[in-house]
Amino acid sequence: QVTSFRGVAVRSLSTSSPYDHPEHGRLVYKGNLAKTVLGVKFFSYSTSIFNLFMMPYIMLKSGIGVESLLVQAAFYGLIGIFTFVTPVTLHILTKGYVIRLYYKDEVDTYTAITYNAILAEKVTVFHQKDVKIPDITKMFTTFYAKTKSMLVNPTLFPNPQDYNHLMGYDKSSFFKFEDLEEAKET
């Protein structure tokens, strides 16, 4: 690999893949909606902050402070829904969306990167044995890592064997075709 540094060719002798992370391992999954989730959450938070700063001005200019108690309750309720409920709902729905998933072969651990409530990346480390598949298909859950729900798109795994290992499908309790052939021979 040859790169340029101030016009001088520099040769890198690195043997690691560009998808390797020194701490987390090999990148096995990258979510395609990461920027969208971040953008929607950021927009929701920014409009909520804007609402909080504009509320005193709106109340002073509209004269809602002198209206009936019922009108005030309806107004504050409507503003409260858009200011607080929408960002909380968005966070609850997207908190398990996996942005990146790394796998460390040596210790059989996965590292899932998600967004937390303040839009920072959150790291969750778990073993393959901690993965539980829900009995009933849930809308925003592909699997549980310990007790945390995670959402991944199986078609975005470049290597299907990585998904099969994550979900435990490679350790299936069903018989294998080779076992069936051996049973026929005996």
From TrEMBL:
Record-linked InterPro entries: TMEM70, TMEM70/TMEM186/TMEM223
Family designation: Belongs to the TMEM70 family.
Protein's recorded name: TMM70 protein
Any one cellular-component term (Gene Ontology): mitochondrial membrane
Gene of this entry: Tmem70
GO BP term, example: mitochondrial proton-transporting ATP synthase complex assembly
Transmembrane portions of the chain: 42-60, 72-94
Signal peptide: none
Species per Swiss-Prot/TrEMBL record: Hippolais icterina (icterine warbler)
Membrane is among the record's keywords: yes
UniProt keyword annotations, A-Z: Membrane, Transmembrane, Transmembrane helix
